[in-house]
Amino acid sequence: MKKSELEHIVRAASQICEDKEFIIIGSQSLHGKFPDVADTILMSQGVDIIAKNKPDRTERLNSIGVDSRFHETY
Q1: Residue 37 Rama label (left phi>0; alpha psi -120 to 50; beta)
Q2: Where are the domains of the chain?
């Protein structure tokens, strides 16, 4: 996943969860620590994120998950 794709997902997640901060789990978290990491290193097509300040809203993110309209469009 490219950094721009991750940023797009986080923007969508922000609207869904009404939160601006997220915990990113797994290989996509490397984009935060190493902003210039090569996109080809990060072959995963998914990202696991948790709404930091509103974790009870994290389940709402299934609406943009695998097989969703969002996923198929982007």
Answers
A1: beta
A2: 3-73
